[in-house]
Design brief:
alpha/beta; 6 strands; 200 residues; 5 helices; Maf protein
Length: 200
């Protein structure tokens, strides 16, 4: 049985404004006051894990320990089978120190030259940690394919080159409310809500 979240304040252990916005939107119906790690002056821990789960847990536990509040972290990325699963857990790092995702998307596209397989899937792992060290984490995935050139200026990261299965629009073109119903983060969040937020 997962531990229930029964507080009214939650730290979002991310300095990524796109992720913060999405997670805050998803949490709004639960009346939880959200504070970002950046606003609290919490440092970004080095992501030394070799899985999405390990990195999400590392971030949530660091924020919970530093703040004394429960903390929610996300580790996510795009997995491209034709690139051997890259960029995967290194998705943000492919954007470089300036976090230029145009550079990252171009790197993926360059790697796919001459490849027939343009399938990809987004992975998101949400990790909820308490200051006592207890952690719950949840994984969501959404499958689709990559397009070029990038389309749309909504979303963030690799959204402008990803079209979900059965769709025509990229995540970068899609209305955020529609994306929230099908995204990898929304799928992980649904599991989190069922396990930790909904009252019995």
């Amino acid at each position: 049985m997962a531990r229930r979240f029964d507080g009214d304040r939650l730290v979002i252990a991310s300095h990524n404004q796109g992720k913060l916005g999405e997670i805050a939107d998803l949490l709004r119906p639960f009346g939880v006051a959200v504070e970002s790690a950046a606003a609290l002056g919490l440092p970004e821990p080095e992501e030394t894990g070799d899985t999405f789960e390990a990195n999400a847990d590392l971030k949530s536990l660091a924020a919970a320990t530093e703040s004394g509040l429960p903390a929610l972290a996300d580790d996510s990325g795009v997995v491209v089978p034709a690139l051997g699963g890259a960029p995967g857990i290194y998705s943000a790092r492919w954007a470089g120190p300036g976090k230029d995702f145009m550079v990252a998307m171009r790197k993926v596209e360059d790697g796919l030259k001459g490849q027939d397989d343009r399938s990809a899937h987004f992975v998101a792992v949400l990790s909820l940690a308490w200051p006592d060290g207890h952690i719950e984490h949840f994984r969501g995935e959404v499958h689709g394919h990559l397009v070029w050139p990038p389309r749309g200026d909504r979303g963030f990261g690799y959204d402008p080159v990803f079209v979900p299965e059965g769709g025509r629009l990229t995540f970068g073109e899609m209305d955020p409310a529609e994306k929230h119903t099908i995204s990898h983060r929304a799928r992980a969040f649904a599991q989190l809500v069922d396990a930790c937020f909904r009252k019995e």
